[in-house]
Amino acid sequence: MKRVRVYQQIRSKDNLRLAIQEVCSSHRRNGDHTLNKKVLEIEANLDEYVEKLDQFIQDLVSGDAHMNKPIKRRRWDRNADNGKGKWRDINEPLLWPDQCVHHAVLQPMIPHIMRSMDRYCIASVPGRGNSYGVKALKKWMGSDPSGTKYGLECDIYHCFEELDPPYVINALKRLFKDQETLWLCDAMMEYGVLIGAFFSAWFLHLTLAPLDLMIHQKEYGVSHYLRQMDNFTIFASNKRKLRKLLKDIQKWLASVGLKLKDSWQIFRIGFAPVVEKAHELLPKKKQRHRRPRIPSALGYRFGRGFTILRKHNLFRIKQSLHLYYYRKDRNRVISFKRASGLISRLGQLRKCNNHQLLERHYQPKTMFELKKVVRRECRRLQALYPPYVAA
After folding, report:
1. Cβ atoms of residues 44 and 59 within 8 Å
2. Which residues contact 59 (CB under 8 A, 6 or more apart)?
3. What pLDDT score was predicted for residue 82?
């Protein structure tokens, strides 16, 4: 693959100005809806801050400056680990100058990183969100029964925490030849590949790109492959080749200091017609032990011609609907947080078979009433805090 130089593009005034504007546009208000004074100051003196950012980037390359230590916050992710939930340590880099540096460096690099990425590597990639992956999995399960006979699901253990910057630098050397860019990326990773930093997802995709190419080799017989950040969903028609592939994935990850979780699974998704007849002749106990199962990914379970929610997502929707109707019947206040959360949950039903769920648990005009609550709160905030006007 052709290596490129991007350092001069990073330092161009247009790129620096665009990076500052991108960061400021998403930080104009604080958590209490008041205006961010730092953003107001930056936008009022944009040309001056462009010069400061250029000088700071030069100092990072020369070693005269260092990135600030990010703020670490602990958050409870209730949907992680199949609904069990777990704590996540999220890093929040400072708005100035750290986040501006991240955007300025990544903007010229992203087109070259995407050039080396697999088509079905999703998450934190423009145009490749959850819906993109769901459409692909539906298509594969519905149109290719022989190619989706067996499945492999696996996950990398503590992916961002265990990924060391030297391995990322080696991956960057495959695409970028100028030393200044590599020194700049190394300076950005002074505190590691941080969960919550803008560059982390892109650097991970670039580091795992050779693994994506290896999985597509003919010797493994992979018919379809999708990776959501560090979660792998692989389909093939041969179980032995999948076992061989799993061992080679573990070896490759060990070479970059990573490893798979012990919860990996290789399973049968469907029977051939001849095998299905033989399966029906087995005793009931053996039929239960040898029955196929449908793959689970992206919050859904994908069958032949149908898609259903995963169990914990279904439970959350039913629980949220029950609490909403309970409070509504007793004329209690429906909070903005509860209404917006339930609207988001109900949006998941658009991508799956939901007739029975809506028939049993959903009452007419629920969405209309929820949007009414959200609309009322938005109008209250607009009256209290006038719309932002750029300097």
Report:
1. no
2. 65
3. 59
187-228 per-position pLDDT tens digit: 999 888 888 889 999 999 999 999 999 999 989 999 999 999
Q: What is the pLDDT of residue 373?
A: 92
Distance between CA 92 and CA 291 in Å, rounded? 46
What per-residue confidence (pLDDT) applies to 391?
Answer: 43
Per-residue pLDDT reduced to its tens digit, 276-291: 777 788 888 877 777 7
Compute the distance between CA of residue 46 and CA of residue 179 in angstroms, rounded to an integer: 29
- Say how far apart CA 194 and CA 93 lie, in whole Å: 9
C-alpha dist (Å) from residue 101 to 23, 49, 58, 92, 210: 10, 12, 11, 14, 27
The tens digit of pLDDT for each residue in 241-290 reads: 999 999 999 999 999 999 999 989 999 887 766 777 777 888 888 777 77
User: Residue 217 to residues 125, 145, 204, 365: CA-CA distances in angstroms?
Assistant: 24, 21, 21, 52
91: its two tokens: 């890093």
